[in-house]
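Below: protein 1.
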Amino acid sequence: MLLPRLAPPAPHPLRRRFQFAALAFAVWSACAAAAPLQSALVADAEVDRRVETLLAQMTLAEKIGQLTQIGPNPVAPENLAPEDLIRNGQVGSVLWTVDVAVIKRLQQIAVKESRLRIPLLFGFDVIHGYANTFPVPLAMASSWDPAMVERAQAIAAKEASVSGINWTFGPMVDIARDARWGRIVEGAGEDPFLGAAMARAQVLGFQGPKLGTPGRIVGSVKHFAGYGAAEGGRDYDSCYLSDGTFRNVCLPPFQAAIDAGVGTVMSAYMCLNDVPASGNVWLMRDILRGELGFRGFVISDAWAVHALAVHGLARDQEDAARRGLLAGVSMDMGSMTYHKHAEKLVTNGKIPLTVVDALVREILSVKIRLGLFESPYGDPDKKAAVCGAPAHRAATREAAQRSMVLLRNEAGALPLAKTLRSVAVLGPLGASVDDIKGSWAVEGGPAVSVLEGIRAKLPGASVEFARGGDMQRAYPMPWEAREGKKAPAGLSAGEMQQELERAVALARRSELVVLVLGERANMSGEAASASTLALQGNQQLLLEAVVATGKPVVLVLLSGRPLDITWAAARVPAILQAWFPGTEGGNAVADLLFGDVNPGAKLPVTWPRSTGHCPQYYNHPATHSREDDEFFTSRFADTTSAPLYPFGYGLSYTTFAYSDLALDKTTLKDGQSLQVAVAVQNTGKVAGDEVVQLYLHQKAGSTARPVRELKGFERLHLAPGEKRTVTFTLSRAELQYWSQATRSWVLESESFDVWVGGDSRATLQGSFTIVE
């Protein structure tokens, strides 16, 4: 698909005010006083009127209450219970409470017992499903199917909404180029064009066509901005980005989410170029509200306002509150920093009341548009029926089927025959009903394991399981460590050896082995960055020992990132990357392995050969020598620098041929568009899906441009022998970029290469030139 726009729109008059405002608070305050922010936040006069009516009645303490989000066990200086804080109008939102009875009780206190009856936002990480768990976001991005992703998040929103959750902390749209970073699993991978498509789809799924759509919830696009570029892939570490990378790579998914109407934005934890994001005036005001035109409100990440003092930006917690408010962080998540210090800052003249009023307007506008004043509650009586709907569970299976990437299939090893009489399912994840769901799968029940899926597919066969070993985190999650918990205890060395021997023995007496390796759910996600991509525990030993038996082996990977499978890629004939596929994951794996579904997903990331190759991504500029230089074949002295699998790669049980590339013109001027058409044919014997991908390269310009950039894609279903023409339209949005040299958006009069094919190595090529 082609997105309608990736670059910023023509500036709104208020955006110009932000763009040319100094970072100092005095200038911004003057702007806010001259044109209250609600005029830009809301277009509807009635919403505007209701906001102003409420604001005029609010005390300073009640205003600060709207800026405060409390957790399940808030630590208030007054030692007040959550119920009392809500009753006093000192809370605007509640975090991570999922008990429907508790949600309803707290909301009733807000709308019946507080002075102004302002309802609460109940926020929760509805990341890839609620009661029914869909594949993790990186997996759904592998589908290259935004319509499917939108449907999935609409189901998640419906289940959350009926449960009383009206706000999700998603989608995460951080571009991730380093597989070591744990939160790569929550995004759409390394490409801004694909990432923007997935951002838009998720926002529309969560929120519907507009905020307040029945059965939907408000989204929060995160983490603004640059969080995915953490140094060394270490979660929460600082990020250093050039203006060009920031605007061309990091911002497009945020722009797409804003264009889709996302109601809230979450500020990031980390420092961006040495300025903490949650205290960064330029980032939150000039860029987010100015250039990108965001008109909702900003929620900090958990305790991020409090952490401004930890970073060393703020002198103390009072100064942290001041800096967060001045930066435009509308709501403090969990730390009570605004609750403790904002009133004093206003009464002492350190923060003008206009700043607080502007931020409160943003929050009230979202609550009104969401329809909370009219419908503040979920519908607990319908929760069981909604969350138990067979169509919802079926949708998770379809999503998983469309998200798994076939990496290797030598000599037609797959699909498997259903006449098999004995199959060994081996590996520590083979019988998993929890890890298979991935991180942020909090509300869903047990999933279908790979073992169960294969047994269901082969009811008359002997399908046995052996664990083969174990792997666990070396360090506990930080929030678990605070509670005194330790990392899960793994098996002893002796137990590991016994498990491995059992697995090898089972392999020897079976016709075929399905080896299920990868990561546990808690080894991927937040606070789960990795120093190595190697298979953890004794999994590599298990892999090599099973392959040494000589039995046919199929490797199924469950993970939230690419792993080091270079050894397997040279020795195992069939490899399926299943990611963390969710509730129906085991059945979906079996569907693909036995050919009931033909795999059609493609990688949304470059797959590195080893940890030392990270970070690795396809859309880099050329450097000292071309990649096809016969004398400079690797950037390393000890191994090839080529990835194991390229971005956009994925196999099928059929084959596809590309031909007849045609451009409707070879020269164009600014304001004109270019049509690129290509014929795609299924040349195999079974129906299948192909993701047609279009890449561009600007040959010269004011800065060095990436060797290739994705600028269009479409997923097709083709019957055997079927041939179809796909047409892409390229316009200024796809051809312009932010120039580091001119410090502006430019459309340059230069020549371009265009390729169309099945992955980022596409060879069918054309060219065109932009002229004055």
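Below: protein 2.
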Amino acid sequence: MSSSLTLHRITYPAKHQPVEKTAAEELARLTGGIAGPAARPGRAMNVALASRGWAPAAAKAARDAEGWIWLRVSDTGAGEVIASEGAGLFAAVRLLAHGLTGATREKLAKGLLIRRSFTMNRPIWDGSFAQYWRSNRKFSPEQYAATLAEAGFTHLEVNSLHTHFPYEDSVPGEYYSQFYSYCPGFNHFIDTPLTRGIWPAQYLDANLARLQSLAELGRKYGLKPGVCLYEPRSLPERFFQRYPTLRGARIDHPFRSRLPRYTMAQDHPVTQQHYRLAVQALMQAVPDLDAMSIWTNDSGGGFEHTASLYIGRNGGPFMIREWRSHDKIAEAAGRSIGKFLRNLREAAAVVNPDFKLSLRIEPFKVEHDHLKSELGRGVHWEGPSLLARGYALPYSHPQYPDQHGVAGGMFHCRMDEREKPELAKERAQGIEPILTYSPGPVWNQEPLIGIPWPRMIHARLTQLKDIGATMVSAMGGLANTTATPYWPNPAAIRAAQFTPDRPIADVLADEAVRFAGAVHGPALAQAWALFEEAVTWQPVVPLFCGFGFCWQRTWDRPLVPDIEAIPAAERFYYERQGCFQHNNPSINDLGRDVLFELISRPAADKMVPRFDRELLPRIAKAERFVAATLKKCADDAQATAVFADLRDRLRGYRHWATTLRSVTAWCSGVYGYLESKTAAQKKRYEKFLQAAIDLEMENTRGLLDHFENSPTEFMVVSETGESTFIYGKNLGTHLRTKLRLMEKYRHRKPRIDRDILWRPAAGVPWPEGF
């Protein structure tokens, strides 16, 4: 808060919304004032929602604007903090504390209207708060909700399991049930007369109680509750034994599952009634539920007869008869999805007429046009680009044009000129799309947290505003903001939302001074710039930069030329929590997962020197700068804390990037050896691999020291134990085992058993002669 601004008396409505009291009390905390309820506005700083009518001047200034805040502060400390919606009220208080320039503050006496850039800005697939990182230690849900509101978010994702493992039918040796641990659907919270008894009542009640408690926390900060679900979700086989005619599509991944999983036939009137009742029950539990994002055709969900189902087009008998053309099937599938979505939306709108339902659009390349014709009237599509038609989009890495597929991720920081006219076409058809952006580490730099790249985020949001987008969603949320107190990314989001015309360099300069003080703030801004400069040169290693880093056990598995030279019993410590199946090529080949080729030899050959020449030297440069600055601020405790935090995150990022480099070097070296025609070529690749192993072992020793001794929480760590998606506190033990095994097996000849696909399940050999 500006030192010249002192407020003595702060009031909020006697009959108030939770956020009105929260915002008033926060303003009192920041100014040393006293907050209390009042029946009407008086000679004080009055904090209220616009609907109260406490500031006629604000309503007049706003006119028909959607999404705004009003700030007026007189020389005597009287005035108003008013917002059109709850999240804006808390954000306005924090803006007064930090986020406004001196020139802007001069306007406060007359009253200042600030319009939001985006009327909706919600997190989806919120990793730390709701989804697969929800067990992360040193995480405060309340601090996180406050950070979201301050940064200009409007919603909070609330569908989150109370447990750390889903209640789903499974069989020994399969992985698939763990895909239900994130973005849980209706069946994990609600049962209807159709599904009663399938899931234990205590499991449903515990999950619903957690959902309700998260929604209540959101109300405290004015954040509207939203959910991100995989639907239509499968039901267990015992359900279809009871109701065989309701069997719809098989939706599981046949490589990762051993138990076929089916959804209900979505056009059947009984199925439609089940979903109506489920929505109504959810709305009864959380009447202000405002937004629902449907993800599908993955992770236990899927729509019948769509082309992108893992098993291929299939479904029940009610949607389309046999022997129809591919386009007719696509047309029927698109119409059916539209009917399904409208059924959900209409059921929710009975309680909340403004309820917003969206569908992730990328899985529907074949059904795209037919599906879009069904949208509108409160039903939206969601995706990274208006040019989306499937997953192929015209966006490449800003430094490496040959790396495609960055749309929606951290490197999607430019906009194709065709985007704006496409938005106009969508609106002409009555469709308002929700465009995604990536604000943090989830799906980008897992499991790290607090890596700064505020300029890329600001560029993405600014360009979305410039094309006229009004609704956006943040993939993965902000992760563990409690453990990242000096992270500048939220300030960039806040600036794009409330002060978009202000240069991002000025925003970051002010934020740096707030964290490190006037003397050392400029150095912090420079350190962020150096760190982000390095990040912009980070190659994208498919799967491994996101959730694949943990589920492939990238940090704790030994990287040796012949992985299966290590006996299965000695690999068990990391394979037990990995996304491995007994015949998955990822067991012995870092460049493959099921039938996907993640890293080809040509791609690996390109990436290794990119790590060596571009990324790692820039990390080292930033580390040297931060180390030198730490020496200069040794007598300043606050600045020292800030730079020590950044030092530790740089080091964590270096260890992470070096291991990614080792993965690509393994692919380059092992594939090169196996494809070599001469002994000289083989010897060269063996030497290359041994150098890579030396580097990774040195890196692992450094990581072990950093993990066990750093005071900074530089990565997410589970409080309750590791899972496929998050490391546990036993990572140090695993790293020691990795080092021992790498030393023991490093000199084996490179080998990959390509016949792993055909292996029988453990303990069940093929009959003799096969």
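The radius of gyration is 27 Å.
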